[in-house]
Design goal:
The complex is a heterodimer of chains A (about 400) and B (about 70). Helices cover about 5% and strands about 45% of the residues of chain A. Chain A has helices spanning about 175-185, 190-195, and strands at about 15-25, 30-35, 40, 50-60, 75-80, 85, 95-100, 110, 120-130, 135-140, 145-150, 155-160, 165-170, 205-215, 215-220, 225-230, 235-240, 245-250, 250-255, 260-270, 275-285, 290-295, 305-315, 320, 325-335, 340-345, 350, 365-375, 380, 400. Chain A has three domains: about 15-150, Immunoglobulins (Immunoglobulin-like); about 155-285, Sandwich (Immunoglobulin-like), CATH 2.60.40; about 290-375. In chain B, strands 2-3-1-4 form a four-stranded antiparallel beta sheet, sandwiched between helices. The chains are: A mainly beta (about 400), B alpha+beta (about 70). The interface of A and B includes residues 24, 44, 49, 51 and 109 of A.
Chain lengths: ~400, ~70
């Protein structure tokens, strides 16, 4: 007599499934470029197919699913373009394949070019066959976009090759210091020294830009117009004749930052009278903290009639060379009988003791020397009372601050 | 963009996987971008194509070559 049978099954942990989608063809990416001048796609997918792979991973907590790469177990695979099964779309007919083999099973191999006017959202749907439990797990990926950039004749763009927020710090400007030394006969003019002073912090600042037409860098065929932004609705066009402009070319504008306190500028690129692109940048003069003190600690000896002193300026832990070039240093003294006596402006001073009110006796023979020091503002062009610009003997405009 | 039509063996020797590429008989089509970014001797596309044992063609010629093999 047969006993009652009892059938039991293996119990498996359910699968945890991960779904993603990736482009496997770096040489033929999701975005093509269409060159309207040659009527060619770059790359042409007929020659260089784009490959999109669904990345399906699966894991079971009990270790019963040995290989996390689960593409091989996909069934009932379909790719959709903008929500429609591509096997039903005429424009896709004969222009794709779905990989059926191994770890790349389900990959879409595309030989179809996408017109610049098209934007195709592709997604993949399939079922993951879990033969352990005898179930099919539905798989749906996110969209991945196919598109094409039109490299057409009217597609212009421009980009700055420098920071659009330009900070000018006179304390760091070695070119300004070089000029000061040459002007004061401290060193002889030298193109080597001048070039060495151009370390990126100099007042004569090149602001480079690139202009592209259909993705190809252009050096001609357009004009460059520089404007100072007066307010949100007013632009003032500048030329190389304006004070703060050194030059304007098709690759860069060069500005004299010494003459700018804080301003915003716009570069507008035109073909004929038609604007094709614009860029904005700003220039700000940096005011850096510093300390200034007299350095002469020597006592005044009997019979001495004049006294010399020199200012020492420190900023950011560094001694500032020739500080009078960027700081307005005014020398003053206080004595028992006269306070706030102003002597001169500059990095050093030499004044007559008789003007200080300093006494001769123990209770009045003291003298305090000090300075008032402020960083100089932006330079201005020097003009006379009739607004005529002052120049040197070579016709170079004079500036001061 | 130009294309290189070269023997599959030449591409493989240069370390280029020909999987998912268009092939015709024992030849494969590589595009200019992948040839110029691969570690292949030569500074120009033509020099690199020569190293692969192939030739450089425009897309129109490549299409004809592929169509002729099908």
């Amino acid at each position: 007599m047969e006993t009652i049978r009892k059938r039991v099954r293996r119990d498996y942990a359910p699968l945890t499934v991960g779904v993603a989608v990736a482009c496997d063809s770096a040489y033929s990416p999701l975005t093509q470029v269409y060159n309207s001048e040659t009527s060619e796609y770059e790359p042409d997918r007929y020659a260089s197919p784009t490959v999109i792979r669904p990345v399906i991973t699966a894991n079971a907590t009990d270790g019963s699913w040995p290989d996390p790469h689960a593409n091989h177990a996909l069934t009932n695979m379909h790719w959709y373009a903008n929500g429609v099964d591509i096997s039903t779309i005429d424009s896709w007919s004969g222009k794709y394949q779905i990989d059926q083999v191994g770890a790349t099973r389900g990959s879409l191999i595309i030989t179809r070019n996408v017109a610049p006017s098209e934007r195709i959202a592709l997604h993949f749907e399939a079922e993951l066959a879990d033969n352990r439990l005898g179930v099919n797990i539905p798989i749906v990926t996110d969209d991945i976009i196919l598109s094409t950039i039109d490299k057409s004749s009217d597609s212009w763009s421009a980009s700055l090759s420098a920071d659009k927020s330009i900070m000018y710090n006179p304390f760091l400007d070695k070119l300004h210091l070089y000029d000061y030394k040459v002007a004061h006969g401290i060193i002889a003019a030298s193109s080597t020294a001048e070039n060495a002073a151009r370390d990126g912090n100099e007042y004569q600042r090149t602001i480079p830009f690139n202009v592209y037409k259909g993705g190809v860098k252009q050096t001609s065929g357009f004009t460059v117009h520089l404007y100072r932004i007066v307010n949100t609705s007013t632009l003032t066009e500048l030329t190389a004749d304006d004070d703060e402009v050194v030059s304007i070319s098709t690759s860069a504008v060069v500005m004299d930052l010494r003459l700018i306190e804080k301003d915003n500028y716009m570069i507008i690129f035109k073909v004929g009278q038609t604007e094709i692109s614009r860029l904005q940048f700003s220039v700000t003069r940096v005011y850096q903290s510093f300390s200034c003190e007299p350095t002469n600690d020597c006592p005044i000896i009997y019979g001495q009639t004049a006294r010399f002193d020199e200012a020492m300026v420190d900023s950011e832990g560094q001694k500032v060379p020739y500080p009078a070039s960027i700081i307005e240093i005014v020398w003053k003294t206080d004595s028992a009988y006269l306070t706030g006596v102003t002597h001169n402006e500059g990095g050093n001073t030499e004044y007559q003791l008789s003007k200080t009110g300093m006494g001769q006796l123990a209770n009045d023979d003291w003298l305090d020397t000090y300075t008032t020091a402020v960083q100089k503002p932006a330079y201005c062009v020097a003009v006379d009372e009739d607004a005529n610009i002052l120049t040197d003997e070579n016709g170079n405009e004079l500036i001061f601050n | 963009m130009k294309y290189v039509f070269c023997p599959i063996a030449g591409a493989r020797e240069a370390g280029i996987s020909v999987r998912n590429h268009r092939t015709a008989d024992s030849f494969v089509v590589l595009n200019e971008r992948e040839v110029m970014t691969a570690s292949i001797p030569g500074s120009t596309l033509e020099e690199r194509a020569d190293h692969l044992g192939g030739d450089v063609y425009p897309i129109a010629t490549i299409k004809q070559l592929l169509d002729n093999y099908e």
